[in-house]
């Protein structure tokens, strides 16, 4: 899943080397924390959050086979 998020985000941003995904796993949830360069935040979020929503939709669909709830947090 981490590789999927990086594959989606890296072509969008200006600084692909600064794209990092951290995984925090609990008993019932998996949280992926996406961090990008501050200048790229607008590109990842998109107008009215459309790009972020699309990324989350793909990630949630890919992770639907797992027994845990998946979350994607986007930050700097």
TrEMBL record:
Pfam family, one: KH_KhpA-B
Entry keyword set: Cell shape, Cell wall biogenesis/degradation, Chaperone, Cytoplasm, RNA-binding
Cellular compartments per GO CC: cytoplasm
Gene Ontology BP terms: cell wall organization; peptidoglycan biosynthetic process; regulation of cell shape
GO MF term (any one): RNA binding
InterPro entries reported in the protein's UniProt record: KH_dom-like_a/b, KH_sf_prok-type, KhpA
Keyword set includes Cytoplasm: yes
Coiled-coil region(s): none
PANTHER family the UniProt entry points to: RNA-BINDING PROTEIN KHPA, UPF0109 PROTEIN SCO5592
Record-stated family: Belongs to the KhpA RNA-binding protein family.
Protein name per its UniProtKB record: RNA-binding protein KhpA
Classification lineage: Bacteria, Bacillati, Bacillota, Bacilli, Bacillales
